Amino acid sequence: MPPVNKAIVFLGPEDCYGPCGCGMDMAILPVLVPKDWYLEECPPEVANDFFCMGEDFRRICGFSINNVFEYEMNGVEYFANFSCCRECAERAVSQGYAVWADRDYPMSLR
Ligand SMILES: [Zn+2]
Q: Cβ distance 18 to 81 under 8 Å?
């Protein structure tokens, strides 16, 4: 079985994207979430930590989820317009289901 893909956390652009899924802070860091997590399987820690489960205002407008963008990077498909707080990002990286981005947030997604 191929390894489960990891989410990618970007250090910027920092903004207030909405409440973080953890409920402790505002989500300020943009994240690309692997499409696999939604279509196949999601690491159990992701659900336990409520990682990227906040209501990012770029994605959720009123009661409808209308702005989920797909983005491909290094042959992996992601969903954009997710976000989390710094603490969740650090936890996600230390738990091993996310990595820090080694580049800037894609221009096409800004
Ligand atoms: Zn958080």
A: no
Q: How far is the CA of 1 from the centre of ligand 1 (A)?
A: 30
Residue 41 scores a pLDDT above 80: yes
Identify the CA nearest to 83 among candidates 30, 15, 8, 19: 30
- Calculate how far, in angstroms, residue 77's C-alpha sits from the geometric centre of ligand 1: 23
Q: In angstroms, what is the span from residue 29 Cα to ligand 1's centroid?
A: 10
> What is the 98 CA–ligand 1 centroid distance (Å)?
14
pLDDT digits (tens, 9 = 90+) for 60-85: 876 666 677 899 998 999 999 999 99
* 1 belongs to a structural domain: no
Query: Is residue 110 situated within a structural domain?
Result: no
* Domain with 25 in it: 7-102
The answer as to whether 45 is a domain residue is yes
